[in-house]
Specification:
Layout (H helix, E strand, L loop, with lengths): L2 H17 L6 H16 L9 H14 L6 H11 L1 H19 L7 E9 L2 E11 H5 L1 H66 L5 H36 L27 H8 L1 H23 L5 E10 L5 E8 L8 H66 L5 H36 L23
Antiparallel strand pairs: 1-2, 2-3, 3-4
Helix pairs in contact: 2-5, 2-7, 3-4, 4-7, 5-7, 7-8, 7-10, 7-12, 9-11, 10-11, 11-12
Length: 468
């Protein structure tokens, strides 16, 4: 082989090799995923790969744990501290390395053989280059770029999903704490009512049946406190797992109660459009279909040429001049013409298109379902705030006035207190359901909710205010 013929493929390979020398940093690769997920997650994802970065993140975690964790702080902490999520972030560096690898030629192979006998010696030397790899490199680069995009979207979806699960865990934990605090208030009130009934029984103003009833209510209130405490423990542990905390960090503080109900709900007619535009799972399905299409194109190009090696060869024998030349190794398509590979790639592509269509159908349905749950949850929570609790408070106030005027018995007062306590528990649960529905709607739409379009005027009521 002449020198010029060798220099051309070597020069082309060197150019592509230099073009492929991109950055292999996992931190830089993660930034694209973090940018995609920022709107829906509400916080930045960061990867700790060095000791300095780990110390910086540990300091940030400690700072967040100094105050009661609100929902946004919980999400920020989870995205930088959860070990499993940090492991997922490493996929960004793996995909980046694969992308760089796709721009590099396979290393040349060197062959050497030596034979001696009968006073003669024969030596053969050869250097082979992957010519087929050089010719198909642009296609492989596009395939690797699409797979890198798929990985970017998949990591962004993992960030989004973890943020969503953390929000739900936070809501459950704070609601459980609020319910436990109120259950303790109710238990204390029933303890006092049981003691009062016992004194009335001694004075002859209450029957044995009245005393037994109050003691039963007192015992049930104590059991409710134990159940509420157990629910709080379970909810905190679920949140702790989402945050990736352990040891002394598990003693973090939470707010005393859930946020108040918004002044007005989000009212938007185009939730399906928002879901189709913003959801990362749909974008990932589209990227997967595009990558499969790229694979199909490569399969059609290379189905006739699977192995094509171009190389330099030289041979020298004892007593003879050295001979130089080149060799080409080509796999002949005598038995496998590549039709099966093309058919398989076409089936995979049609399968990917079906996944895209189904993902879009699911996204539309999930958006409608989540919005219905959101509006229903808002209406129920507002009904408790504006109707049920004010009426229960008014009944309690009127009963207390009648009791002070000796027009009502203490048992009527205690019965109203029990009914009021049940209403407050239901109001707390309705508020919890609304905020869970709000979180699910954010996930279904792939981002924050649009602002409300109208306002409702109502008296502010605290579901924790009425006490027995």
């Amino acid at each position: 082989m002449n020198a010029l013929f060798l220099r051309r493929p070597l020069a082309a390979g060197a150019a592509l090799l230099l073009a492929g020398c991109a950055s292999l940093g996992s931190q830089d690769s993660l930034r694209a995923s973090a940018d995609l997920a920022r709107a829906s997650a509400g916080a930045d994802a960061r990867l700790a790969t060095t000791d300095d970065e780990r110390r910086a993140l540990a300091s940030e975690v400690d700072a967040l744990l100094q105050a009661p964790l609100d929902i946004d702080a919980a999400v920020r902490l989870a995205l930088i501290n959860h070990p499993g999520l940090q492991a997922t972030y490493q996929d960004a560096g793996i995909a980046q390395a694969d992308l760089v690898q796709a721009t590099r030629l396979r290393n040349p192979s060197f062959g050497f053989s030596r034979m001696a006998g009968g006073g003669e010696r024969e030596i053969e030397r050869g250097v082979a280059f992957d010519l087929a790899g050089l010719l198909t490199m642009p296609l492989r680069q596009r395939m690797a770029a699409r797979r890198h995009e798929e990985t970017t979207l998949r990591i962004a979806a993992a960030i989004e999903r973890h943020a969503h699960d953390t929000r739900r865990a936070w809501i459950e934990a704070v609601a459980a704490r609020q319910a436990l605090d109120y259950a303790k208030q109710v238990a204390a009130a029933f303890d006092a009512s049981s003691a009062l009934t016992a004194r009335m029984r001694q004075a002859g103003n209450a029957s044995a049946l009245d005393l037994a009833r109050e003691q039963a209510f007192h015992a049930e209130a104590g059991a409710a406190v134990m159940r509420a405490a157990r629910q709080l423990d379970n909810a905190r542990e679920a949140l702790t797992r989402q945050l990736g905390l352990w040891g002394q960090q598990t003693g973090y503080m939470l707010p005393e109660r859930l946020p108040d109900l918004p002044e007005a709900p989000t009212d938007t007619p185009d939730i399906e459009r928002l879901a189709l535009e913003r959801r990362l799972d749909l974008r990932a399905a589209r990227a997967a279909a595009a990558g499969t299409a790229s694979d199909l194109g490569l399969t059609r190009v290379t189905r006739m040429v699977n192995v094509l090696d171009l190389g330099y060869a030289s041979k020298s024998e004892t007593g003879k001049e050295r001979s130089d030349g080149y060799e080409v190794a080509l796999e002949l398509p005598l038995f496998d013409w590549g039709g099966a590979r093309v058919a398989r790639a076409e089936s995979l592509y049609m399968q990917a298109l079906g996944h895209v269509a189904q993902t879009a159908v699911d996204a539309r349905s999930q958006a409608r379902t989540a919005y219905l749950a959101y509006r229903t949850g808002y209406d129920v929570a507002r009904h408790y705030r504006e109707q049920v609790l004010p009426l229960r408070k008014r009944i309690a106030d009127e009963t207390l006035l009648r009791y002070n005027g000796m027009l009502a018995s203490p048992f009527e007062l205690l019965a109203d207190a029990r009914e009021q306590a049940a209403a407050v528990h239901a109001a707390i649960d309705a508020l919890r359901e609304f905020w869970l529905a709000d979180t699910d709607l954010r996930a279904a739409l792939g981002g924050p909710l649009p602002p409300p379009t109208h306002h409702h005027h109502h008296p502010a009521q605290d579901p924790k205010e009425p006490t027995p």
